[in-house]
C-alpha cells in the first residue's frame, strides 16, 4: 500500500479523524469536438469556491451515515440529483495532504463511478459549476495539457491521473506528453503572474 494510504477499515477506525468523500463521474461518448476531434470519454470535475479544481463531494460523518450515503447526500446537494454510491465504487482512502491547518487529521475517500452518457445528460451533470475534463490534445498543446496545468485541490490532480491510467482512458504516452506540456504551461503562467505582481506593485507605489 502506498505511503499515506489506508484500508477502509483503518480509515474508519481512526479516532478523532474527519472524513471527506469525493467521486470521479465519467462516461464514454462517441461525440466529437467541432465534428472532428474525438472526445472519447466525459469526466466531470468542478471549480470549487476557492478557485481550485476538484471532484464533487464533501465532508461525511461515519458516526451518522455510511461513507457512501454521505457521498450520495453531498452529490444531491451539489448536483441536484440523487446518485447511489456503493462500496464497489470506492478506490482508495488516504490522509489528506498537509497543505493547510484545515487538512489536519482529515482522511479522504476517493470513488469512481461510470455512467451511461444518456444517464449523464438526463441528470444534467454538465451544469451547476461542473467542468468536463478535455481528454484530447489540440494544435498548440491545448486540451488535456492546459487543463492539468490548473491548480487542483489536495491530491485531486494525482487522483485524476491515476484514474486515467488505471481505466485506460488515456494512453500512458499521451498522458506523459500532456503532463510535460502542462509543466511548460505552468512555467509560462508563473512568469505571467510575476508580471502581474510587478504591475500591481507599480500601481500601488502611485498611491
From TrEMBL:
<dbReference type="GO" id="GO:0005654">
    <property type="term" value="C:nucleoplasm"/>
</dbReference>
<dbReference type="GO" id="GO:1990174">
    <property type="term" value="F:phosphodiesterase decapping endonuclease activity"/>
</dbReference>
<dbReference type="Pfam" id="PF22327">
    <property type="entry name" value="Nudt16-like"/>
</dbReference>
<protein>
    <recommendedName>
        <fullName>U8 snoRNA-decapping enzyme</fullName>
        <ecNumber>3.6.1.64</ecNumber>
    </recommendedName>
</protein>
<dbReference type="GO" id="GO:1990003">
    <property type="term" value="F:IDP phosphatase activity"/>
</dbReference>
<dbReference type="GO" id="GO:0140933">
    <property type="term" value="F:5'-(N(7)-methylguanosine 5'-triphospho)-[mRNA] hydrolase activity"/>
</dbReference>
<dbReference type="GO" id="GO:0005730">
    <property type="term" value="C:nucleolus"/>
</dbReference>
<dbReference type="InterPro" id="IPR000086">
    <property type="entry name" value="NUDIX_hydrolase_dom"/>
</dbReference>
<dbReference type="GO" id="GO:0030515">
    <property type="term" value="F:snoRNA binding"/>
</dbReference>
<dbReference type="InterPro" id="IPR054754">
    <property type="entry name" value="NudT16"/>
</dbReference>
<feature type="domain" description="Nudix hydrolase">
    <location>
        <begin position="16"/>
        <end position="157"/>
    </location>
</feature>
<dbReference type="GO" id="GO:0009117">
    <property type="term" value="P:nucleotide metabolic process"/>
</dbReference>
<comment type="similarity">
    <text>Belongs to the Nudix hydrolase family. NUDT16 subfamily.</text>
</comment>
<dbReference type="GO" id="GO:0016077">
    <property type="term" value="P:sno(s)RNA catabolic process"/>
</dbReference>
<dbReference type="InterPro" id="IPR015797">
    <property type="entry name" value="NUDIX_hydrolase-like_dom_sf"/>
</dbReference>
<keyword id="KW-0694">RNA-binding</keyword>
<dbReference type="GO" id="GO:0006402">
    <property type="term" value="P:mRNA catabolic process"/>
</dbReference>
<keyword id="KW-0546">Nucleotide metabolism</keyword>
<keyword id="KW-0539">Nucleus</keyword>
Amino acid at each position: 500500500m502506498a505511503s499515506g494510504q489506508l484500508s477502509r477499515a483503518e480509515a474508519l477506525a481512526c479516532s478523532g479523524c474527519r472524513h471527506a468523500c469525493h467521486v470521479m463521474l465519467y462516461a464514454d461518448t462517441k461525440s466529437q469536438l467541432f465534428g472532428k476531434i474525438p472526445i472519447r470519454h466525459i469526466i466531470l470535475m468542478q471549480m470549487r469556491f476557492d478557485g481550485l479544481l476538484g471532484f464533487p463531494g464533501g465532508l461525511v460523518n461515519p458516526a451518522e451515515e455510511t461513507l457512501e450515503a454521505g457521498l450520495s447526500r453531498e452529490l444531491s446537494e451539489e448536483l441536484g440529483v440523487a446518485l447511489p454510491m456503493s462500496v464497489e465504487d470506492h478506490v482508495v482512502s488516504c490522509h489528506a495532504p498537509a497543505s493547510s491547518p484545515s487538512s489536519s487529521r482529515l482522511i479522504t475517500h476517493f470513488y469512481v463511478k461510470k455512467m451511461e452518457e444518456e444517464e449523464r445528460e438526463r441528470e444534467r451533470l454538465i451544469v451547476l459549476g461542473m467542468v468536463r475534463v478535455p481528454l484530447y490534445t489540440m494544435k498548440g498543446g491545448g486540451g488535456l495539457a492546459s487543463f492539468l496545468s490548473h491548480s487542483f485541490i489536495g491530491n485531486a490532480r494525482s487522483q485524476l491521473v491515476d484514474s486515467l491510467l488505471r481505466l485506460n482512458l488515456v494512453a500512458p504516452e499521451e498522458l506523459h506528453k500532456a503532463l510535460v506540456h502542462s509543466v511548460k504551461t505552468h512555467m509560462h503562467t508563473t512568469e505571467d503572474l510575476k508580471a502581474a505582481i510587478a504591475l500591481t506593485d507599480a500601481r500601488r507605489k502611485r498611491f
